[in-house]
């Protein structure tokens, strides 16, 4: 029986840039970091405060994402936050482009989109009122 989402896996084009983004900008905690010589690939396990994780991988010559954002597969990765405005301002202070805040038409919750260094769509979704 499924209990919860344990992790999402992301393949990046520039490991150092993405490592800094997810750890220094988004503040995710490093659980483990491994270089896999046989694959010439890094695997970085990152954890959010609730215990959910992101696996960040680097591979040589990975194909680019086919289109934005309506390609088949993962559409975006959403993070629950207490205050969308504060998070948006923080990201913008780090030079990250953030879209305008929107309202979910079904839940009336506020959300906003931005992208990781490879253009992966990320969402901040306000979980508290």
UniProtKB/TrEMBL annotation:
Q: Which domain of life is it from?
A: Bacteria
Q: Which UniProt keywords apply?
A: Metal-binding
Coiled-coil annotation reads none
Domain VOC intervals? 4-127
Q: Keyword Phosphoprotein: yes or no? A: no
Supply the NCBIfam families for this chain. PRK11478.1
Q: What is this protein called?
A: VOC family protein
Its source organism is Paraburkholderia denitrificans
């Amino acid at each position: 029986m499924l209990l919860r989402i344990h992790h999402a896996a992301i393949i990046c084009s520039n490991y150092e840039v993405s490592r800094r983004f997810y750890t220094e900008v988004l503040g995710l905690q490093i659980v483990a970091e491994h270089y896999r010589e046989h694959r010439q690939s890094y695997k970085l396990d990152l954890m959010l405060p609730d215990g959910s994780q992101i696996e960040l991988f680097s591979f040589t010559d990975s194909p680019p994402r086919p289109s934005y954002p309506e390609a088949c597969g993962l559409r975006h990765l959403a993070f629950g936050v207490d205050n969308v405005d504060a998070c948006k301002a923080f990201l913008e202070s780090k030079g990250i482009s953030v879209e305008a805040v929107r309202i979910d038409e079904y839940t009336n919750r506020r959300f906003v989109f931005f992208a990781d260094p490879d253009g992966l769509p990320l969402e901040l979704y306000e979980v508290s009122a």
